[in-house]
Amino acid sequence: MASIEELRNERIRKLELLKKRGIDAYPARSGRTATIGELLETFATLPKDAPVTVAGRVMALRRHGGSTFIDLYDGTGTIQGYLKEDALGVDAFALFDATVDVGDFIDLTGTPGETKRGEKSVLVTGWQMLAKSLRPLPEKWHGLQDTEERLRKRYLDILFNSDVRELIEKKAVFWQAVREFLTGRGFLEVETPSLELTTGGAEATPFKTHHNDFDLDVYLRISIGELWQKRLMAAGFPRTFEIGRVYRNEGSSPEHLQEFTNMEFYAAYMDLEEGKTFTKELYRELAMRVFGTTKFTTRGHTFDFAGEWEELDYVTTVGKITGVNVLEASEAELADKLQELGVAYEGENRERLIDALWKYCRKQVSGPAFLVNHPKLVAPLSKENPTDNRLTIMFQVILAGSELSRAHAELNDPIDQRKRFEEQQKLIAGGDTEAMMPDWDYVEAMEYGMPPNFGLGVGDRLFAFLIDKPIRETQIFPLLKPKQ
After folding, report:
1. From residue 139, how far is each of 70, 97, 102, 233 by CA, in Å?
2. What's the predicted TM-score (pTM) here?
3. Which of 130, 257, 424, 425 could bridge across to 105 with cysteines, CB 3.0–4.6 Å?
C-alpha cells in the first residue's frame, strides 16, 4: 500500500499536469447555477435539455472504460455525475481521468437526467477544477475509535459523520431559539467586555493576560457580563441579554470546559416566582424547537420538561441525604463528612466544603427541579432571604444530577453587596482561586440606584445534556493539546 507521502506526490504530479495545460487548479470563481439540494428539489420539473452547473467535492469515483460515474457533494446534497467520452469529448474526458481524484472540488456542467437505474444525475458536458486536493480522504473514518483524532481533524469528522453535522446544525438552532425567545419578549441583545480588570458574575479561576498598551494585567471573562448587564439595569434598560464565549481556567470533564458559549439575561422588576415560570417556558421552547420533544434520557436519568418541576430546599436536601446541617455544622464536621463519603474537594474554607457536599447530593436528582434557598456564602450576588438572613433568594435548575442554570433575585443593596465582596476578598487572601473578585466600581454604580431584577444563565452544558454528549464533543473545534 502506498504511503500518504507517495499518494500526495502523485496528486502534486496531477496538479503540475493541470498547470502545464494552462489550467488554474484553484480558480476564484465557480460557474455554479444551483446548489445540489436545489437541483434535487426541482429535478422533476426541470427541462431535460436546459444545462445546469453544480459544484462540490468528489466523494466517489467509478470508472468503466469510456464512462465515469462520480458522487458530488456540496453540503446541501449529493448527486451523481455521469461522464461519457463521446458527450464530453475525448480530450476533456482524458484530462478528467488523468487529474481528478476523490476529494477534489469541481464544477460539473450538463443536463439533468436519469440513468437506466433511475438515479437522478447530471449528464456531463463540461467540467472545471475548483480545488485540487493533495491528501486522500480516509477510507475508514466512520469506524475511527480514537476520539482525540476525530476532534483533532474535526473537518473530516464533520464530512464523514452525519451525526456530527446534525449536532452542529441542532446547536445553531438551539442558540437561534434562545435569541428569538428573548427578543420576542422585549429583551435587548447587548455586547459587554470579554477583557476585564476584575472577573465578576461567577466563581471560577480566570485566564490572565497582559494589555500592552495600558501596561496592566487583565482577565478573560468568566461570566456573560453579569455585572455589566446589571449596570445597564441602573442605566435604564429594563431587559437585556448576551450570548457569548466564557473562559474558565479549570479542569475538564464531560460537563466542563475552559471555553464555551453561554447566555445570561437580566430583567428589571421580574421576581423569582416569575423567573421560574419564565425558565420553564424557555426550557420547553428549546426542547421542542431543537429536539421536537420535552422528554429526555441522559446520563442515566429520565426527565420531562412538560411535567411537574420539583422544588428542593438546599439545606433540607443536603440534610436528608448526608445528615449534615450545612448552616450549623463546623468546617471540621463538613470535612469529616466529605471524607466519610469519599468526596474529593478543593479548598478548606466553609464555602468550598458546603459546595462539595451539595455536589455529592445533586447526583441523586433527575429533575427537572428548582434548588432554592442557597446559603448566602455560596451566592455572593443574590438577594438575602427576608425570612432567614443566612439564605438567599435564588434557584438552580437541576437535571440528571447536575446544575444546568443558575438564577438570582439579583442583589441591589449596595451596603449588603459591599459586605459580600469583603467576604470574598478574605477568601481570596486565604488562597481561594475561585472566589469572586470584588468590583468596587460596580458597587458605586449600585449606590446610584438599581431596580430589583432577575437574572438567569444557560448555555452549552444544557445543549450537551439534551443531546447526551460530553460537552467537549458539542464544540465544533475544541482545544486540544498539540501532538508530541
Report:
1. 16, 21, 11, 56
2. 0.90
3. 130
Q: Is the peptide bond before 386 cis (omega within 30 degrees of 0)?
A: no
- Tens of pLDDT, residue by residue over 380-432, are 878 889 999 999 999 999 999 999 999 999 989 999 999 988 988 888 888 88
Q: How many angstroms separate the CA atoms of 272 and 408, rounded? A: 7
Is residue 119 located within the same domain as residue 239? no
At 211, which CATH number?
3.30.930.10
Alpha-carbon distances, residue 120 vs 73, 74, 78, 313, 368 (angstroms): 14, 16, 10, 62, 48
Domain that holds residue 59: 4-131
Count of all residues that appear for the chain in the document = 484
Helix (H) or strand (E) holding 465: helix 460-467
Q: Supply the pLDDT for residue 429.
A: 87
Write the DSSP symbol of residue 285. Answer: H
How far is C-alpha 483 from the chain's CA centre? Answer: 24
The sign of the torsion formed by the CA atoms of 436, 441, 446, 447 equals positive
Diameter of the chain measured on Cα atoms: 90
Indicate the helix (H) or strand (E) that contains 397.
strand 394-399
Residue ranges in the chain whose pLDDT is less than 50? none
Owner of C-alpha cell 438552532: 173
Query: How far apart (Å, rounded) are the C-alpha atoms in residues 149 and 480?
Result: 10
Do the bridges between strand 310-313 and strand 369-372 make them parallel or antiparallel, or are there none, so unpaired?
parallel
Question: How many domains are contained in the chain?
Answer: 2
Which of 121, 125, 18 is CA-nearest to residue 62? 121
Query: Do 63 and 167 reside in the same domain of the chain?
Result: no
Residues 6+ apart with CB under 8 A from 430: 349
Percent residues over pLDDT 90 in the chain: 80
The pLDDT value recorded for residue 434 is: 77
